[in-house]
Design goal:
It contains eight helices and ten strands. It is of the alpha+beta class. It has a five-stranded antiparallel β-sheet, with helices on one face. The protein has a five-stranded antiparallel β-sheet with strand order 2-3-4-5-8, covered by helices on one side. The C terminus is likely disordered.
Length: about 300
């Protein structure tokens, strides 16, 4: 087990505007070395000329403020932190409502959000919408947070043989959100009341949905291709891959990469058995993208 007091974080972020007229993503990171509590927030604004860029900034600023106010206080139990994360999202949503009431022409703006909190060697999160939170461990990539869009339903149709994969990828409703912050009631919030233990060598990836220009296999291949790369290098490589994809309608893309480091760990340390990682994946009900499959898929695309 990794000693929580020994854990350090290497954190970096990167953004690309894609083919959009403006940057409607916003992000903020606070992971000071040696601190007992750190966090990162990513929001993908929506609304275009109805001020999607303003919406994402409001969401990030409000959640950042709520968390920074509590950053010096201890969190005795995971449910205490999950309550704080949920309250921060509600505060951000209330601020959107106040902005829309003050400026009715901005009605229709809103955004998604994913916020990750790092405390006592563990991870907790809150998310609304389709922004991404991945964990890369021992070369396996797993999505941790729920996807509040129509994509899971459409993928289920593929699994049941109702439509083929190509039709699913281009389905016109694939990116329709089932939950978002709009100043109204939030239909779904993903905020588990548990704390996931982090290990030396883990990599957390947070991103807006623009990163989905890449497949999960490609993301895993990039992030796992250089296990000793700095977070900055991983973030830049992901953005470069999105840009190289060349989608003429490429969305804004924002990425935060957090590498978990234990100073006392040796580069030659034996990795946990794959069965342990499989147990983690099964425990939270999400399939793993193994490094072997990721590498094979990436070579096929190359």
């Amino acid at each position: 087990m990794t000693d929580p007091a020994a854990i350090r974080f290497d954190v970096a972020s990167a953004q690309a505007q894609g083919r959009r007229e403006r940057q409607e993503d916003a992000l903020a990171v606070s992971c000071p070395q040696g601190a007992a509590f750190g966090f990162a927030v990513v929001s993908d604004g929506m609304g275009g000329h109805a001020a999607g860029d303003l919406a994402s900034r409001i969401i990030v600023a409000e959640i950042f403020a709520e968390l920074i106010l509590r950053s010096r206080d201890p969190f005795d139990a995971p449910d205490e932190l999950s309550a704080l994360l949920s309250d921060a999202v509600e505060t951000a949503n209330a601020s959107l409502r106040a902005q829309i009431e003050a400026c009715p022409e901005q009605a229709g703006m809103g955004g998604t959000v994913v916020a990750a909190a790092l405390v006592e060697g563990g991870l907790q999160w809150v998310s609304v919408g389709d922004s991404l939170l991945y964990l890369l461990r021992d070369g396996g990539l797993i999505r941790l947070n729920d996807d509040h869009s129509m994509a899971p339903e459409i993928d289920l149709m593929v699994a049941r043989g109702m439509i083929d994969e190509e039709a699913a990828r281009s389905h016109p409703q694939r990116n329709c959100l089932t939950s978002a912050l709009t100043g109204q009631r939030i239909p779904e919030v993903d905020c588990p009341p548990r704390r996931m233990e982090l290990r030396d060598g883990d990599v957390l990836l947070m991103a807006s949905d623009g990163l989905q220009a890449l497949s999960e296999a490609q993301i895993a291949h990039i992030a796992a291709g250089a296990p000793f790369a700095e977070s900055r290098e991983i973030a830049e490589a992901l953005i470069e891959a999105v840009n190289a994809h060349g989608d003429p309608e490429q969305d804004n893309t924002s990425v935060v990469v957090i590498r978990v480091l234990e100073p006392a760990a040796s580069a030659a340390q034996t990795l946990p058995a794959p069965s342990l990682w499989s147990a983690v994946a099964n425990a939270i009900g999400r399939p793993m993208v193994p490094a072997t499959a990721a590498n094979a898929a990436a070579k096929t695309r190359g």
